[in-house]
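Ticket #4471: structure output looks truncated?

Reporter: J.K.
Steps to reproduce: submitted the chain below (449 residues) through the standard prediction queue, then opened the result file.
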Amino acid sequence: MAESIKLSRINEMLQNPKFQQNVERLQTFKIYPVKSEFPDELVLPVILSKLDHELLSAVSSQLHRFASLILKADGKVTPEEEEMLKKVWELTHKPKKAVPNVKQTEVDSNESLDDVIKELNELIGLKNIKEEIKTLINFLKVQKVREEKGLATQDRALHSVFMGPPGTGKTTIARLVGRIYKHLGILKRGHLVETDRAGLVAGYIGQTALKVDEVVKAALDGVLFIDEAYALSRDGEDKRDFGAEAIETLLKRMEDYRKQLVVIVAGYPDEMETFIKSNPGLQSRFNRYFFFNHYSPEELVAIFKQFAAKADFKLTEEAEEKLLFIFEKVCENRPKNFGNARAARNLFEQCIERQANRIVSIAPLTEEILINLTEEDIPPVNETVKSILVFDPKKEAAKQQQQQPDLTQISKVLNTIVPPQQEEEQPEAEQPEAKQPDADKKDGNNDND
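Returned output as attached by the reporter:
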């Protein structure tokens, strides 16, 4: 361009106000706006990847080459431009695509392993989980050093089973684990792909394997997290169910991509034990088990305060005491499906609504009034405990048992209405007159008695 146009003309063009306007317009111009959770992706690579088209590799290479030619046009490449080229390569060769019933969480490229460990330590409770993850980190570090020195290493089977009630941090820990594996060099991306039965099982023959393949491809170089995985196994319930096909396909892909994929399955302990035992392939591939416990009342209060702090609220001393009393009452009778942190969040949302009703007519509304949650903002104890445990399976079972008809009572009622039939007396049959025995024989019989 510089050879065909005079330098004075180029300078004149650069100084023209419209030139900068046109540059800004080109930077924001989009031929086809993408509406998805990955709006920055390049449309063509995404489409070709979705279709599994043979031209994906060639098109991706050409797009990357074009970007490289532009950045190297001045004969030099700065470190910032190098990073930009790496990003372009990721966009062209590994396009991200949205998958139905699947949530994807990327890893911050600027964080370190120490940042992840610090975040792990700041989590409330989960003492046993933290210790097990630290042990796993140390083991993997040592294995990596042994590998570098040419020494024998143990098989790094990282597929895991997370067992515990809802709201105890299983998904959060799964995200942290993926990030840890990335910083240890085990996974390239370390991102988390979350799904459940709906994201893996289709309703038609032949479609389930395709769905599993699509989810697995999205999770490559990262962690695939399957919540309530036991729902895939429904032996005896429906012979037409495709959950078994999903399991078999997943097991095959775990073997095919054993160095690129880590799978974590999660759910209630009893159901997960049944699920793992339902297929020998599951038992052989999942050999790391993490047990998540219910939070204590004190931990639930701490979680509540954490929600409050993030939303610029704080509890008064009286409010905190009342909140602790509520959680103590709840924990005395909580069922296995108690929501733990979810219950704390729901209660927090109720409290800020009650606070809004209390302060809306106050004038002026100072910052202190807006921030403080008082004892009055915490709902009544008995009412709150009852609402949190409203779907307690134990109560439902007892209620159903009470509703079962008492057969003994029903029998008594029926007897009062319809008296039982009396057995008719049978007429005695005429008996022939018995002959009187001789006196001698009678005396003899008495001797034998």
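Triage note (M.O.): checked the attachment and the full token line is present. Residues 297-397 form a domain with the Helicase, Ruva Protein; domain 3 fold (CATH 1.10.8.60).
Status: closed, working as intended.
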